[in-house]
Specification:
single chain; five-stranded mixed β-sheet; 4 helices; 5 strands; 37% strand
Length: 135
Amino acid sequence: MLYFAYGSNLNHIQMKRRCKDSIFIKKINLKNFRLTFRSRFRAADIEKKKDSIVPGALFEISKNDEKKLDIYEDFPTLYKKYYFFYGKKKVMTYTMTNKTTFRYPSDRYLNIVKRGYKDCELEYKHLIFALSQRI
């Protein structure tokens, strides 16, 4: 199964710890979405926004990995699954069920995400922009 990571799961060490079978495939952009931080947990989320992109990473994960991610992401209470197609392949990611006003992430969490951006060779400008959006 293909999984799209956009927050702390971009961090290769953390992703391997959570999902031992996971394999990083490549970086991709999710079109018509934007990255945001709108939860009481101050974690990353994505929401639809025309003409925006969310940079992230495509991983191959096993069914066992998916079960572990479901537990970690508190599916279906905190996050729900969202599916999209990348080429002809179906990809799964998570979006938050209840969004709050903007909540700046903790330094610890943000450092994990930043390391993930580095691991996946993503441009920081999208993360910086998301952190500046207090909508």
